[in-house]
Amino acid sequence: MPELPADQIIDKMESLLNIASDSTRLKIMYVISDHERNVSEIVEMIGASQSLVSHQLKVLKKAKLVETRKEGRRIYYHLADIHVEQLLAVVYQHVTE
């Protein structure tokens, strides 16, 4: 049996999974998983309001699931790292089996 992680680690895992479990945030992560996009592109692709998308991007960025790159006046969003991509892939695979 694997060793139980410390409570602090469990709390961080819970927080991360709670943040990732929102349907709008999942959609956002999916549309930026293969290509970085700006807010306007994300809004169009997921069919949500600009204010909702902006708010959810802020939540994802604070949780270090999403990072940004600024080009001129535009900000482009992409997944923070391979771990976020793997998390999406594992959850997708699990629910579609």
Question: Would you write up a description of this structure?
Answer:
The chain is of the alpha+beta class. It contains five helices and two strands, in the order H-H-H-H-E-E-H. A two-stranded antiparallel sheet has the order 1-2. The longest helix is centred in the last third of the chain and has 15 residues, at 82-96. The radius of gyration is 15 Å and the shape is globular.
Throw out a few tags for this protein.
97 residues; single chain; alpha+beta
Summarize this entry quickly.
Helix content is 61%, strand content 12%. The protein has helices at 7-20, 23-31, 39-46, 50-62, 82-96; strands spanning 66-71, 74-79. The mean pLDDT is 96.
Note the topology.
Layout: H1 7-20, H2 23-31, H3 39-46, H4 50-62, E1 66-71, E2 74-79, H5 82-96
Antiparallel strand pairs: 1-2
Radius of gyration using CA atoms only? 15 Å
What ranges have pLDDT less than 50 throughout 5 or more consecutive residues? none
What's the order of the H and E elements? HHHHEEH
Q: Summarize the amount of helix as a percent range.
A: 55-70%
Please count the beta strands (DSSP E, at least 2 residues each): 2
> Kindly, what is the distance between the CA atoms of the first and last residues, rounded to a whole number of angstroms?
26 Å
Q: How is the biggest beta sheet arranged? A: 2 strands, antiparallel
Secondary-structure class: alpha+beta
Strand content: 5-15%
Biggest sheet strand line-up: 1-2
Q: How many helical elements?
A: 5
- The multimeric state of the shown protein is single chain
Shape: globular
Q: What would the average pLDDT be, to the nearest integer?
A: 96
